[in-house]
Design goal:
Length: about 190
């Protein structure tokens, strides 16, 4: 039940074949979900996934109404994807996701920008310093995945981010641990990036 807002700068592209298409009746059909592969090369795109990592995108009252974190400069051809994802039973805090694709600059720098924005969103006190990012096994999509604990205890707000050849994204996991958030984030990524 999550709303995933997609803002495309520059209009439709021929390479949007992985996005749902509208039929003549106006219904949207979901594309087949290919299994991610480490052999795939070249830039990937973010997709409007109805679910990610076993979580459902939130709609209605639980949906995002605005882009909560400044994604950085959006250029022609880039896509911004945001959404809130939650458990089907409605238990627990939703996971806030934000990512961009077709990033023309260093995606590690864009991920750092998104990390800072998410820290501002949760009102992290800068006097406490910048939380250290810990590497996470990225799974079959490769690239670099990191999570940081923005809490003074062993659990709390965890922010995870990925950066690869053309995409950068972050997600906020409330009341989590680095290990749990990292595992869920990699699972979500498999559904959100193609």
């Amino acid at each position: 039940m999550a709303v995933l807002a997609i803002l495309t700068v520059g209009g439709c592209r021929e390479d949007d074949a992985g996005l749902p298409a509208a039929s003549p009746s106006g219904e949207v059909s979901a594309p087949a979900s290919p299994t991610p592969s480490a052999e795939r090369s070249g830039p990937r795109a973010l997709v409007d996934a109805p679910g990610a990592g076993g979580l459902e995108k939130l709609t209605g009252d639980g949906a995002l109404a605005d882009v909560p974190v400044d994604p950085g400069e959006m250029r022609d051809g880039m896509t911004l994807v945001t959404g809130a994802y939650g458990k089907p039973d409605g238990q627990g805090a939703p996971v806030l996701f934000e990512g961009v694709d077709h990033v023309p600059e260093d995606t590690n720098e864009r991920r750092e920008h998104l990390f800072r924005g998410m820290l501002e969103y949760i009102r992290w006190d800068p006097e406490l310093g910048h939380p250290d990012a810990q590497p996470v096994e990225p799974g079959p999509l490769g690239g670099s995945v990191e999570c940081l604990l923005a809490s003074l205890s062993e659990d709390g707000n965890v922010i995870c981010g990925w950066a690869d050849e053309g995409t950068a994204a972050v997600a906020l996991f409330e009341d989590s641990t680095l290990a749990d958030a990292g595992k869920l984030f990699v699972g979500m990524r498999a559904d959100l990036e193609r």
